[in-house]
Target: Methyltransferase domain-containing protein
Amino acid sequence: MSVGHENKIYGVYEKKVSEEYEKNISKPINVWEEFFADKRRGGHRSSAEEFLAMEAREKLFHLDGGKTLLDFGCGAGELLVYYAPEYEKTIGVDFSPSMLEEASKRIRERNCENTTLILADDKTVWDKLDSSFDRITAAGVFQYLTYQEIDEFILNASKYLNEGGKIVLFDMLDPRLYPLWKIGLFSQDKSCWKFLCKTFCGVRNTISSSLKNRPRDILGYSHNPNTIKKIANKNGFEMICVQSMYYEYKYHAIIFRK
Ligand SMILES: C[S@@+](CC[C@H](N)C(=O)[O-])C[C@H]1O[C@@H](n2cnc3c(N)ncnc32)[C@H](O)[C@@H]1O
Model:
């Protein structure tokens, strides 16, 4: 459902979302859609506005201009409201009605009149768009997609990307650094006992989740940057990988045409 153009955001938005949600309630729901269905925050390291503003500044630096932007998995709009003033047109997409409700409030509070929200997932979003973009971005979202879904996303995104456009995937979980962060290696408090406990819990969770064929924790899957690069190349793109400034165990994938 596109909550845009004819409806813009605001008033009718909440009603439209709930109608769409009711309509879709019978379709099989994936584990992450279920997980996010009632969430209202994007899980940033801090929810303080000062921190979100810093994070958004880093992301705007890597987005590096453009006039139109699609924020896939925009969540509660915590970054989107910082992107909006820098673009002529911004669209936020998410499959979580509660997240979009929060995003809608934020957008209203900040008077981001150039912003439209769409309730959709990585498969359904493309049919709901009526224009292409200079930037297609996602922050902290791709850990909820498999490699195959990422491949399909990049292929679809390439059809909605303007000439000179970029796909910028922020905060991908780095499989080399994430386990080290999980056991507390980057923490200020490096007590030996805590380190051992976390290592033990980490190993136990990894074994039990792989036996149940489920992701290890709510942070989803980690993705090897080299594999993401191969996927980008296969779809006719170059990719550069940069370290996330605020999350030691995450990286950004900046994807652009060869
Ligand atoms: C960790 S939150 C990040 C939100 C936002 N990007 C931010 O940085 O504040 C991840 C968001 O991605 C959304 N999401 C995850 N997988 C998705 C999918 N396949 N389609 C649409 N949204 C998805 C979730 O609903 C959630 O709002």
About this structure: The domain at 2-175+223-257 is CATH 3.40.50.150 (Rossmann fold).
